[in-house]
Amino acid sequence: MHRRVYSLIVASALGLASAGAGAVPAFAAEGGPAGLTTAGQACATTSPGPYLSPERLNDARAVVLDGTYDTSVWGAEPTADFQVWDTAHPDQPQDWSERAGALDGKLHLQLEDPERQLDGVTYAWKVRVDASPWSDTCYFTVDRSGGSAPAVTSDDYPSGDDPHGEVGTAGSFTFTAAADDTVSYQYSFWDGVDSGSTTGNQTVPASGLGGPATISWKPRTSGQTSLSVYAIDRAGNYSDRQYYAFSVRETRPSVFSAAYQNYESSADLDYNVGVPGRFEFSSNVADTSSFTWRIDEDGPSGTADADADGRADVMIAPAKPGHQTLHVRAITRDGVPHPEQAYEFYVDNGPRVTGDVNRGVIIGSSLRFHLAPRTSDVTSYVWWNSTGSSSEPDKKTIPVGADGTADLTWTADNTNDDTIGIRVQARSADGTLSQSRWLSMSVFGAAPWITRTGGDVVGSTATIKASTEMANPTEYEAVLNRDATTKQVVPAAADGTATFRFPVTKAQYTSVSVIARNAAGVHTHEGGTSWSVSNGPVVTSADFGSSGHIRPGTFTFKSQQAGATKFIYSISGTDLYNVEVPVGSDGTAVVPWTPTTSGYFSLYASSKTADGVRSTETYYSFYIEADPVTVTAVSPATVMTGGVRTITITGSGFNTGNYVNLYLSDGGYESATITGVSADRTTLTATVDLTGAATGPVTVGVQPDGFNGSVRLDNAFTIVAAPALKPVTKPAITGQAAVGSQLKASTGTWNPKGTAFTYRWAAGGTPIDGATGATYRVQAADLGKRLSVEVTATRSGYTAATARSTATAAVAKGPAPVATVLPKITGKPAAGSAVQATTGTWKPAADAYSYEWRANGKLLSTTSASLDLTAAMAGQRLTVTVVAARAGHTTGRATSTPVTIQK
């Protein structure tokens, strides 16, 4: 209580401003919140404050308002009252109370609604806790748009396809903003070299707010290059992207050599270290007089004269093996050197390998290679397997013969079956290794092929026969369901195959895995087969094999489950579902069934023991053929249009799976729904919707099933028009034709009586959207218009009819809103202060309010909800009249209780 009294005294003494104080900040009194920040920035107490883009501030895309308060005065968890307003509308503060928080001395609010934080609007805010004084007023401006793309210009590298400049020659690019609040530019070049981007995203500041920026850049390659540029404004928004494309002139020479190319796979083994090869230089600039060339930084170098076409062929002998780069530069007659062209090539001095190169091998078999040197003084060869792994390979050494050659035999086994290739190097007496020779290969695991007979039913035996492509297998090993206790090892027969027999004891998904092994102990990859083992009943039928007819028949179930006492079966598309029948003493049961329709059917059967153990399910499918159909008559002879009608068809061979179609006199047709078939299948009843059907004779067709043609009866019956309902008295409208009033429509009277009615209201003859009920609430849009209603009557067997009412008088305005709570004047009524008017409470609610202030009965010019009181008003009696406007209604007025303005 003492805290609240203190707050009121301080507020009165300082004359705190309201939320509508406009652009002039209200300074916080002692005890009000402090430490204010807007989006992490210190409170700006003058407009427009910082420019903020909520989308770039945080994941919540919100402007965050923070502050602190004195917990020793206001407690740990008071109520926070934030006021936020558009500075152009200070009398309309926003309510964010549901998001505001105050806890342990900290105040927090996230402004997350973009509909209340509009682009380009300057907002002010302040905060208090409980009845504390208001804080300072802080300002910020919302900026959500980065605007249009900046312009890009360059005299050195103009946009377009015409090439300019050259590789390594810097050019200037100028960025010019389309907006006046740009503070920097982000740019990146793309030229296709390496990953494509030469710079990544770089940022350069504008010369001033909204000013341009100029950068310098050197091309790395010739041809098409692009530049992407964004302007960034003071709120951090990015503009649309500017795409600037240009072309760099190629002044580096073209270089090619058929002798020395870049890839190991294309190496010509006639060329080696110290063996000259032809390199072709072609200039791309006019008046070239010569070329300079060098290999890497420490290799051979030289100069070659260019011919009249700017070309030169140069014989160059590489001084080292492996990958290296030839750099070539064109020199024009005026002595100007142009950028270097880099030509990467590979010098192969690896051994020559012949034999079973670049081929596959079956596990357990061998490849043979002959190795010959291409470097001097070779004493051995080093080779290793490659699996694609990054681990250190196990390298092996082979000594050479007197002629420097050696033979390598490689056998595929279970230690190296993941090999994808072999690498071989020659080693000289001083330990120097040549480049490696790559020999690609693949190992075929020769997984056994499997065939199976039997084993489909519990208690039977599965016979497995296995064979493999591995040469000379000595034995096979097989395992059932990966159970090590079932492992069988069988010697290979003379034809290289093996046969296994596994008793099957469980109804389950079953598998057998098999490997073959040779005398050296090398085994193949694993082969196998899998299948489902069933103990479900065997289903047979002489009547319903793959097909049957619509007549009584039987199925025979034979149990394959030990101890089965009953069979359980279902037939799709019928009412037979989980039907139980006992298992006979011979383990069988005969089940009768009479189809009622043709088509495809599925029977699902299983068995069950006395203790409830159920077997697997047997699936049995079959087709029931439709019998021939005849159509001899249809009744009744005449049928009225306008609704759902029932017809009876007489003939033979009918079933519920038939299709019935009606072919109308105008060429149209309707499908009928079968509702019943007699037991002797000579009578069929069906319903058909004849709403809107053409009158005249009808041909009826009955199709036996979905595949065979229909049997037709011409002129089977005649469709005749249904009589129309007739209005006796037209509908009438009761109620007052004024905005807000409810009108009611009568149905009128009809001959014969209608059984259902629909309504359609109109204003000035134009139908009103959604006005389809028996009552209608008059809207403001109807003001001055005459209202009418159309009533449509329906009755089964009759054509619907419509009648319209007499129109009302022109719609008048509704009654004025009435103040149930009078407006009043709030704030201190003293000269130099401001007071505000409440709207009061109105019924019905108003759409808008206006204000008439009077001092001693004299109307003042102010029309807003607030009024600044001057010294001249002291002693006068002040009232405010609130004028309430509602669309389509007369305006309402209510006047507050007067207050006296103090000095």
UniProtKB/TrEMBL annotation:
Organism of provenance: Paractinoplanes ovalisporus
Keyword vocabulary terms for this entry: Signal
Pfam families xref list: TIG (PF01833)
Name of the protein described by the UniProt record: IPT/TIG domain-containing protein
Recorded superkingdom: Bacteria
Signal peptide stretch: 1-23
Every IPT/TIG domain range: 630-711
Keyword Signal: yes
InterPro entries: Ig-like_fold (IPR013783), IPT_dom (IPR002909)
